[in-house]
Amino acid sequence: MGIEARNTEINETSLRNVVKQSILDRINNIEKVVNDLYEEKRRREEAQRANQNETESVNSSASSSSSYII
Fold it and tell me: What's the pLDDT band for 66 if we cut at 50, 70, 90?
């Protein structure tokens, strides 16, 4: 194999490696975005549950208090 052929092979291998790394980087970025979205969804659901529990507690207290009014 001549020097030019070897250099071409090395360049093609390097290019393939760059493309592979670029694809892996994009996959990792997508995975991070998906994980961030799931985390945001979890936090919102948790806050919604906390707000719902607080509302139910306030409503329950108001209902109990009004039963003592004559």
Answer: low
Dump pLDDT digits (tens) for 20-65. 999 999 999 999 999 999 999 999 999 999 998 888 777 777 666 6
Structure tokens at 27: 């996959």
Non-local CB neighbours of 9 within 8 Å, separated by 6+ positions: 1
Rounded Cα distance, 39 and 45, in Å: 10
The structure tokens listed for 42 are 């979890």
- Closest-CA residue to 39 (of 47, 27, 49): 47
What lies within 8 Å, CB to CB, of 21 at 6+ separation is none
Domain boundaries, the chain: 1-38
Q: Is residue 10 predicted with pLDDT exceeding 70?
A: yes
Residue that has been written with the tokens 């994009």 in this structure: 26
